[in-house]
Amino acid sequence: MSEFVIEPPQPATLPVKGTDKRFPVRRVYCIGRNYAAHAVEMGHDPDKEAPFFFQKNSDNLVVSNEFPYPAQSEDVHFEAELAVALKSGGTDIKIADALNHVYGYAAALDMTRRDLQGVAKKMGRPWEIGKAFEKSAPITPLVPAAACGPKDTGSIRLTQNGEVKQDGDLNQMIWKVPEMISYLSEYFELAAGDVILTGTPAGVGPVARGDVLEVSIADLPGLSVKVI
User: Fold this and answer.
1) Where is the Fumarylacetoacetase-like C-terminal domain (predicted)?
2) Residue 62 lies in a domain
3) Is-contact 173 190, C-beta < 8 A?
4) Residue 44 confidence (pLDDT)
5) CB within 8 A of 94, min separation 6: which ones?
């Protein structure tokens, strides 16, 4: 007899490149406005902000070549991002030790219902309605850090129907991966299975059904997604 009063949901997991094993996802943390040019295009001064984070749901991460245009929105935007997956965690992690907690990396999209996010901002409400909807984070299989090294530099690019829209470098991140891990661990107890989306370069924009989005990050598999 089951100990549960209802059937428990299947855990969210991600494939790992080169193996048939899966990475279990615990939480998804997302940093906001982590590239200076993107902060400016969103109307903010990057020199005056401490890092801030919001969350997506673990099952928002999906390995799929399709992104269903979500309900209740007429202005959905793409945001290309580097994803960082943790193999361990803790509290008050030192910057010098942070990369020891990284399992691997992936290319991802933080799809955003920008109109709903805009309303939430104006009313001082949380962003989840604009950020944490179903299938809002397409992602590639993870690449273990041992296979690709730390991701502190290298190109990050997004094309929409073959046209370059975002073209940056990971070294443009205001808060680097070790700093993000350290800062988060001051406020949350990080743990194995946590994923961090590390922000997006300038050039975000709207999508339409039929669009093909392609994300490339140096030394990682590319992500290709069709909006349906």
Assistant:
1) 28-227
2) yes
3) no
4) 56
5) 182
